[in-house]
Every structure is written in C-alpha cells, then in structure tokens.
Amino acid sequence: ILLLNYVRNRYGPALPVIIISGEIERRDVIRAFKKYAVTNVLLKEDFEYDEFRLAVRDALQTSLL
Fold first, then answer.
1. Which of 1, 44, 62, 63 lies 20 to 30 Å from 34, alpha-carbon distance?
2. What is the DSSP letter of 12?
3. Which CB contacts under 8 angstroms, 24+ apart, belong to 60-63?
4. What string of DSSP letters covers 14-60?
5. pLDDT, tens only, 42-64
6. Cβ burial, residue 18 (10 Å; 0-12/13-18/19+)
7. What distance in Å separates the CA atoms of residue 65 and residue 51, rounded to the nearest whole number?
8. What is the pTM of this model?
C-alpha cells in the first residue's frame, strides 16, 4: 500500500499498475482497486506467464485510450 501511494503521488492515476503478490487479503485488494486505481492483481501461486502478458497488454491498451 505504501508503494501504491508513492506511485500514485509521483505518476498520477494514468500509469497502469499490476500487483503480483504472494499473499493478498480481500480488504487490501478492494482498497487498492478503489483508492489507487490498480489495473489488475495476480497471485504468485497461480502465476502464469500468459496471464501476466495479457494483463500487461490490457493495461497498456487501456492507458492509451
């Protein structure tokens, strides 16, 4: 959350942010999406390269609109 706060203050809401985390509590995810405009959240235990690639592609396409 501290890193998200720094990124948003430094670069603004237009920069896509994808979180990759080993542990995510539901309330933290909801807060991140609402307050920090997180683009996507991926779990390390379910991590797949193709899913990550698609998340990055979608984030970049959305930020260019």
1. 44
2. -
3. 60/16, 62/16, 63/14, 63/15, 63/16
4. TS--EEEES---HHHHHHHHHHH---EEEEGGG--HHHHHHHHHHHH
5. 888 888 999 999 999 999 988 76
6. middle
7. 22
8. 0.76
> CA 47 to CA 44: how far, in whole Å?
5
Query: How many Å apart are CA 55 and CA 49, to the nearest integer?
Result: 10
What tokens appear for 35 in the block?
């307050």
Tell me the C-alpha distance between 29 and 31, whole Å.
5
Alpha-carbon distance of 59 to 38, in angstroms, equals 10
Integer Cα distance of 3 and 7 in angstroms:
6
Structure tokens at 44: 């390390």
